[in-house]
Amino acid sequence: MYQLIDGKKISAEIKDEVKEKVRLMKEEGKSVALAVIQVGNDPASTVYVGNKKKACAYCGIGSPNYELPEETTEEELLALIEKLNLDDSVNGILVQLPLPKHINEDKVIQSISPKKDVDGFHEKSVGALCIGSKGFVSCTPQGVIELLKRSGISIQGKHCVVVGRSNIVGKPMAMLLLRENGTVTVCHSKTENLREITKLADILVVAIGKPKFIDDTYVKEGAVVIDVGIHRDENNKLCGDVDFEKVAPHTSAITPVPGGVGPMTIAMLMSNCAKAVED
Ligand code: GUN
After folding, report:
1. pTM value?
2. Are residues 157 and 246 in the same domain?
3. Would you call 54 a catalytic residue per the annotation?
């Protein structure tokens, strides 16, 4: 029987730990605030931003909100970020992505002070992760590491195969697994013989953005499978990049969708906000 990795429970534990940390900081007279910026009203972004604000409220973190109209210019957005960079009452800055097409997303990300880059997207944060120095780490891959650790799954010496090479998930995921002394292989859309490589994985992390792409033919018996994907299937039911029904019986541990990696992203964002005050 496989272990179902409970992201709901683990993310709740982390949020409770952050809440306590924030309470203690407040006793010392330090407050925590995350500025949340949304440009336009993409419905998915509105849901994500709402969930982030709810988590902030739960943890005792302030979340000054900036809801900007779709027509906001790049200059206006950069000016707001500059103001928040200089505002000592703001510890973290989150610009919800995607941004409208007329705004250069990379320019905006790089304009956030690395000291307030709680998303871990700034090139300085990414560089720090690569060389093992201090900096914010992208929340979703950091959440995957926490899921593994808190489920008693050791990474050291294991063959970890990451499928996906995005800047937000795949690449930082590979770096974090390496930092935990895993032996890491990164696969992507151009990888030849993908199945032969994923079948070698002791720990398989899937972030490819294709519903139920990974079935049992891609997975070694007894592997640990982490599913970063989230989609709606043909019956409008939530599913991941992994075909859970087919794969789960062959694993030693697996994350469900929903309730696996998903809730960890916000928990790690809260954790990064608390860290932003400590540093
Ligand atoms: N859009 C989708 N996921 C994310 C995220 O983790 N951070 C930000 N800023 N935008 C997102």
Report:
1. 0.97
2. yes
3. no
